[in-house]
Amino acid sequence: MLQQIIFCPIKIIDPYISALQENYYYPVLLEPAMMGEPETTETPEMEEESTMWIGSKPAVQSSTREKAPLPDVITVEHSLSVITDLIKEIESEEVPTQTQSEAIDETPDQPIKASSYRHRFALYRKNPQYKSILSQLNLFQSFAKCLKATDNIVQVLPIRSDTKIHALTTTDQINHLEPIGIQTYFKPYRKTQLHISGDYYIASKPSFQDLREHKNVQTWLVQHGYGMLWSNCQSSDMVKIGFLSRVRTFTFQDDLQKHITSSPEWKAAPFHFRIYFDSFNSRTKSAHILMIDVERPKIEVGLQFFPTWYDGKLKNSPICIEYLFLPLYKKFYTDDERLKIITDHHHYLGNDSVVAL
Asked: 49 pLDDT band (50/70/90 cuts)?
C-alpha cells in the first residue's frame, strides 16, 4: 500500500474503505472503483487529474443518474439508514403477495361434486311366495358384500340417525355380524319375517340410480327376487304408527295417498308417510289392512292427524269408504282385542273381497 501511495500511485485508496473491505464489510453507496467494478478506459484528461498531489480525490464526472454525495465520515448508522431506505424503495415497487385463501376467494364459484351420497331405500320381494334357502343373516351379508363389490367405499349405516353405532365399512365386519346385529342396519317390515325386505340406509360414491343400475346389484336382485325402491323421506327412518281397517274392494293406495296430501288438514302440517298393504292377525283369524308409517320426528303429528281423519265415520277416501284408524305405536293388543278388530273389519266388508293394487 505504501508503494502505491508514495511511489507509484495508480488510484487513490481510501484507508477507511480498505479497512472495511479487509473485514468483509462494504458500504452501500460507493463508486464503481470502490466496489471493485471494472473501470472505464481513462482519457488523457483523467490521467492529468491523477497526477495531482497526493491526498486529493479525483473529480467525479457527471453521469445520467445523479448519486447522493457520500458524507465525509461514513458511520455504521449511516449504512443502516441507507439499507433501510433501499428496502423501502424495493418494497414499494413490488406487487403484494396474496395468501392462498385470498387467491381462492377471487376465483369464480364452481359447482362442487359430492364425494359421496347417502341413500334411504327399501328392499321388497317381487314374489312373496318365493322362499330362499338362505337365512336372513346370510341374505343380509350377501347383499352387503354385493354393495361392497360395487363400491369399495360403501358404508352400511345404522337405520336410525340418532344412534351412536359404527357403520359397516369392511368385509370382516359384515362376516362377523350376529343375527341380532343386523336389526341395527335394516328395519324389517315384520319382526317375525325370515327375508330381508325392509328399509336400508347407506353411503356410497355412486348415486342411487347408478348404484341400482350397476350390473353387480342387478344380478343380485334378479337371483334373489328383490327390488330396490327409493324412499321419499331421506332425512329420517320411518316408524309404524298404525293401520286402516275396513279396507275393501279395489283400494288404490297411491290414490288414497294423493287424496290425503291434497287435503287442507295435511297441508297445514305436512309430514312424510307411506301406506302399504299388510295383515293383522289373531290366533284364529286375520284381516288385510293398510299399514301406515311416518317419519320419526313427526310421530306425534301423525298420531294426531290419522285418528281424526279416519274415525270410522268420515268418508275421507276417493271411493268414500269409512276407514277406521287403529294405533300400533306403543300399543299392545290382546288376542281378544285383535279378534274384535278383525270381526269388525269383516262386518263392514260383508261378502266383498280385498284386492291389493
From this structure: very low
CB contact at 8 A, 282 and 322: no
In which residue are the cell numbers 309404524 written?
A: 240
Instruction: Tell me the pLDDT tens digit for each residue of 271-290.
Output: 999 998 888 999 999 998 99
Please tell me the pTM assigned to this model.
0.62
Packing angle of the helix pair 136-150, 215-224 (nearest 10 deg): 160
Distances (CA, A) of 220 to 71, 151, 215, 227: 93, 14, 9, 10
Grid cell locating 164: 351412536
Gap between the Cα atoms of 131 and 125, Å rounded: 10
Residue type, 282: S
Residue 302 and residue 323: Cα distance in Å, rounded?
A: 16
SS3 of 37-97: the string is CCCCCCCHHHHHHHCCCCCCCCCCCCCCCCCCCCCCCCCHHHHHHHHHHHHHHHHHHCCCC
Q: What are phi and psi of 198, to 5 degrees?
A: 160, -165
Residues 300 and 327: their CA atoms lie apart, in Å, by 12
- C-alpha to C-alpha distance for 189 and 181, rounded to whole angstroms: 17
Read off the C-alpha cell for 283.
290366533
The 3-state DSSP class for residue 115 equals coil
Q: Which three cell numbers stand for residue 190?
A: 315384520
String of DSSP letters for 234-257:
-SS-EEEEEEEE---EEE-HHHHH
Confidence of residue 129 (pLDDT cuts 50, 70, 90): confident
Q: Which residue has the cell 265415520?
A: 313
> What letters, b where the CB count within 10 A reaches 16 and e where it falls short, cover 165-190?
eeebbeeeebeebeeeebebbbbbbe
Q: At residue 106, does pLDDT exceed 60?
A: no
For residue 184 the three cell numbers come to 341395527
pLDDT digits (tens, 9 = 90+) for 71-102: 555 554 555 566 666 555 554 444 443 433 33
State the pLDDT at residue 320: 85
Average pLDDT over residues 251-274: 91
